């Protein structure tokens, strides 16, 4: 070895530290005796030696999300679904039972109905908002895992996290909560009794509709290690470039959510007065069916998702979104731009109209993910589109 060999990773261009974490776009790191000791001791879980295991930019994003959730540990994944699947498969074995909400994100529904049963796991479904039924189902089936989403899509019904956590813990089960819609700005599930919180970081956490990512967070170090081991074998790690975008999004998380939640609540008030609007659904409203749960689970802000139901059914709802000039007709949520989508032709297209009504998804329903355009701009856009769609 000579001193003049080319070692790019050791070139420091500055004596001082960067304010923003560098993007460590490297798959591998130079090994030394400490790294070998960790590889041989823990399987390399704690050392930065190969980027499917650990990467400093990915770790920076995980640390920020752990901080937002008040969690001791967090792990980034390639998508929200990678976080959910990796977490559930870490906790469940053939012969186990999971009691899960009926109202979950569509691909989570496929995981529950198609993939977990194929692995020999029994799945029992319960309405998210029916706390008595959660208690009964958990006591009867004695599951290993209990799973729900803080806020259901698009009905925005709430999961009573403390009550469901208590029921789960009475039978030794772990409660896993998908907090994508509510975000840690409104709800911190771990503080309410959940054992693991998972989320699509694609949405409000990253916040700019420019990266697909996921996160699992917990206070339990052994559980985090078990999930990390599956992330390593299933391979759902996050890339450093993507992690950088998540990290950058977290820097403005609080102010983005403060604005979007406040505007969602204000728009709920303003749209209620529109004669073509049959119903406005937002957990801030006194007529929301879960106000008592909302007061405990989302004590301050009630979320940036807003659902409206217009007269004239799904045909009018479709005309409405086509007349939007500011909000964009697109799937997903949680970006700086307001997105509008229709359950009947996107998230719940594979249900019959009768099944949708049975599930509380009414004709004329429009789901809005409120961004940062401002209350007056959005109120004007929505009111004009409603009028134009008549
Ligand atoms: C509630 C919820 N959970 C999980 C996911 C999956 O996230 P991703 O698309 O990042 O895999 C989504 C995506 O829309 C979602 O809305």
State the total count of DSSP E strands.
12
The number of distinct structural domains comes to: 2
CATH architecture of the largest domain: 3-Layer(aba) Sandwich
Content of β-strand: 5-15%
What's the CATH C level of the largest domain?
Answer: Alpha Beta
Would you tell me the overall average pLDDT?
96
Q: What fold name goes in the CATH topology slot of the largest domain? A: Aspartate Aminotransferase, domain 2
Alpha carbon gap, first and last residue? 78 Å
Helix content: 40-55%
Largest sheet: 7 strands, mixed
Which sequence of SSEs, written as H and E, runs from N to C?
HHEHEHEHEHEHEEHHHEHEHEEHEH
Radius of gyration: 22 Å
Bound molecules: pyridoxal-5'-phosphate
Structural description of this entry:
- By secondary structure, this protein is α/β, with parallel strands linked by helices.
- It folds into two domains: 55-251, Type I PLP-dependent aspartate aminotransferase-like (Major domain) (Aspartate Aminotransferase, domain 2, 3-Layer(aba) Sandwich); 254-388, Aspartate Aminotransferase, domain 1.
- It contains 14 helices and twelve strands.
- The strands form two sheets. The chain has a seven-stranded mixed beta sheet with strand order 1-7-6-5-4-2-3, sandwiched between helices.
- The longest helix is centred in the last third of the chain and has 20 residues, at 253-272.
- 49% of the residues are buried.
- Bound molecules: pyridoxal-5'-phosphate.
- Residues 79-81, 105, 149, 178, 180-181, 200, 202, 212, 214, 332 line the site of pyridoxal-5'-phosphate (PLP).
